[in-house]
Amino acid sequence: MPFLEHVLQQPAYGWADANGKLIKPSTKQLLKEFCNRTNVFTTKKNWLPFFSWLKVLFLVPFFLGFFIFFLHWWTIVAAFVYGMIIMGTHGTIWHHRYCTHGAYKFRNKFWRFVTQNLTINIIPEEIYVISHHVHHTKSDQPGDPYNAQAGFLYCFLADVNHQPISKDLSEADYARVKRLMAHTGVKANTYSQYQYWGSYAHPARALLSWIVNWSFWYLTFYFIGGPALACSLFAAAGIWAVGVRTFNYDGHGQGKDKQRDGIDYNRNDKSINQLWPGLVAGEWHNNHHLYPKSARSGFKAHQLDLAWQYIRFLNRLGAISTYKDSKQAFLAKYVSAS
Known about the structure:
The protein is mainly α. The protein has one domain (3-86, 112-273). It is built from 16 helices and two strands. Strands 1-2 form a two-stranded antiparallel ribbon. The longest helix has 41 residues, at 203-243. It is globular. The chain crosses the membrane at residues 56-82, 216-242. Keywords: Fatty acid biosynthesis, Fatty acid metabolism, Iron, Lipid biosynthesis, Lipid metabolism, Membrane, Oxidoreductase, Transmembrane, Transmembrane helix. Belongs to the fatty acid desaturase type 2 family.
């Protein structure tokens, strides 16, 4: 069986039926799977999906504090910019274009560390990266961990129900996981540690990274704008943490064919270019599916790509040594030829 066919932990309801058709689980099945996979009392191997949502729960007090105590016009503006633009763009820069697709390379580990921690730490790299490789291989097919055709909740709970790596990989397959993650700077468990924890990352290192990152950013925001700014921006991170889990459902047309001539050129799946995610996060999703390894996906004049602007800026500083840019290839194939 090909590696990407079995690298993810299959949900209890399965990916496909006996005829190879997508299984669309009920709400009850999805919620049961979510509860089972976040139950660390059943098995410690559930620690990573539990940890992923624990971060979201820890942001709830900031969210409540923002609305109860710190709701002013300037905190609303700050929260909007941070949650919608800065957090979204960082997700594209770090998790999407670098960690998954290796669209550019850092000059050294320092700049990689800076970029990794540009914002409040929310999404574990391991959950995002491996599953996203599967997503591109099986986009909108059974086995796609966030297949929009199975419904909103299927995508929303995907980081727990569909995206974690399998807990029983062979040593050879785990070595392939390590190769896919090696450039991210996240230190790998040994194979015996993977068998014990069921993950690439070690919980102690993940916990330490979380504490240091959140402490640094809370103190930074506090010194800049006091508790009002700190609480507001952490609240914004919480809103983003929930909102980002809805993206692939919308980014693949909610499971329907919503592609438009002259806008969406990749017709191998249901991905679409959306104006809002494109403008605020550089996520021109259909373009990205055409050229997944490109450090830029805003190819047309109106397609603002803030993630690309950051990558190009660091390249000019000498912090990024090389990058791939598919704009000219896109224009030659899809614009000049039309």
